[in-house]
Amino acid sequence: MHLIIASSIYFLLCTSVLLFHKERNFILFVKLTFIYILTFVSFKTDSFTIPIGIIFGLIFLFQVKKDKKIVLLSVIYGILTNIVLHYFTPPIPLGYITESTEMYEVVEKFNEVEYVKTFLETEEMQLNIKKFVDRDLDIPYFMLLSYILIDNDVAVNGRVELMSGPHEKHLSGTKIKKTGNTEIVYLNYNGIDYIGLFEYSKGEPYLKVVVRGSVKQGLVD
């Protein structure tokens, strides 16, 4: 996330130079790139941070005679980037953005949401919902079914019971979407809608997100 912001502001810096500076050469862009990157150098302790790069950038600004405006622009954009990154932008890894997008893709299919739950690949729940699921079955479908039965306190004592127990008459559903690495499954149990997002790791699916509530009309046939 920080890299995207820093790169975007660097692009604005280069654009500003191209618009307002008549002389354009390779050395010029090397200079502004060096100074811009220099502004990110700092010395941190537990109680304070010394912006060494910005200090050197300002010293360099007062020392140079040629391209003074370029140096000034580079320092200003560098300071601006540091302020944005340190005070206005939380340190969100790109992976979190991807996960949030996936979760939104599931949640936006609902009119009403009772809850949203997320699970890690290593959680005990993964073992519980795979307990009676064999490889020759539609694994994500029956994993979500197992989760729903657990969620509704319905006991299942084996594979046959999972596939053909009394709960079957209260059940309907389908796959909504399948990509190379993820699969979204919809099931309705006793009038309650569930959507599970499964991700494949080492060829095996695991339940990553499950949403319970009431889906939008027309989502499934």
List the helices and strands and how they pair.
Layout: H1 2-20, H2 26-38, E1 43-44, E2 49-50, H3 52-63, H4 68-88, H5 94-107, E3 110-118, H6 124-130, H7 139-151, H8 159-164, E4 171-178, E5 182-189, E6 192-201, E7 204-215
Antiparallel strand pairs: 1-2, 3-7, 4-5, 5-6, 6-7
Account of the 3D structure:
There is one protein chain. With 221 residues, the protein is an alpha+beta fold. It has two domains: 2-88; 99-215, no CATH class. It is 48% helix and 23% strand. The protein has helices spanning 2-20, 26-38, 52-63, 68-88, 94-107, 124-130, 139-151, 159-164; strands at residues 43-44, 49-50, 110-118, 171-178, 182-189, 192-201, 204-215. The two termini are 39 Å apart. The mean pLDDT is 81. The chain crosses the membrane at residues 35-61, 70-88. Keywords: Membrane, Transmembrane, Transmembrane helix.
Look at the helices and sheets and give the structural class.
alpha+beta
The percentage helix is 40-55%
Major sheet description: 5 strands, antiparallel
* Overall number of structural domains: 2
What would you call the shape? Answer: elongated
In whole angstroms, the N-to-C terminal distance is: 39 Å
Residue share in β-strands: 15-25%
Radius of gyration: 27 Å
Low-confidence stretches: none
Q: What's the order of the H and E elements?
A: HHEEHHHEHHHEEEE
Tally of strands: 7
Side-by-side strand order of the widest sheet: 3-7-6-5-4
Query: Given the structure, what is the number of helices?
Result: 8
Mean pLDDT: 81
